[in-house]
What we know:
This protein has about 70 residues and is an alpha+beta fold. About 30% of the residues lie in helices and about 15% in strands.
Amino acid sequence: MKYNFSRSKWYIAEFRWQDQRTVFQWCEKQFEPHPHRPDAWSRWKTMPQNAIAFRDEKDYHWFVLRWSS
């Protein structure tokens, strides 16, 4: 039986699509490389519609402070 664990609470932050490349580079530098297969232990992951999900609230706030318009 495969172990199935999911995180029910992610902190979702949006960004301008024009900044996508820079945002991803910044996240990889600040947090860690983007996981190839995000799971419940991943610190962050990309989402559709120009959004990023963060595992930790402090990372979410850091991102919002940097990238809010």
